[in-house]
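Sequence only, no structure available. Ideas?
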Amino acid sequence: MVDKFKQADKILVFIETGVGILAFSAIVLFSLANLLIRNFLQSEWSINLADWIGTTLPHMIIIVGLLGASIGVSRNEVIRIDFLRQYYPEKLARFLNPLLYLATSVILGIFIYTAWKTSEFDDTNWIVTVYIPLFVTFTLKCIIHIFIPIPIPDQAHVDSAQKR
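Reply:
I predicted one. Tokens follow.
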């Protein structure tokens, strides 16, 4: 069962990495295009295109951030408050990690529900077309990691972290 969850996680990471690379490449290209359009073209369509690019770029940056956070969950490299984690026993850590992923899944589920209820359903709405699918994927990733045991750092790792 755990192997199937790990396999699903690997597939999701592969897809997220590809989408992240595409989104980051688009950010670079759109930023360059925006710079060129605003400085060298002065027609009505170019001004409209530059405005569209200007409103699209922040959404793309959020997309890359969400994808990075989701990939971080798979690699167990998420930002967390670790100073207490080194002091509680391994058995408690093995219980708390799935509990934290469950809590994250519930919070993301609330985000999804709220976004779904408050959004308008048209093809130009970023919340429906991009953010909800990303949050659903992130939630699935957290649910998968409830069932995948996370390696707990050994005491040597904890001791080296304390020396820093």
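The CA atoms of residues 86 and 155 lie 9 Å apart.
Hope that gets you unstuck.
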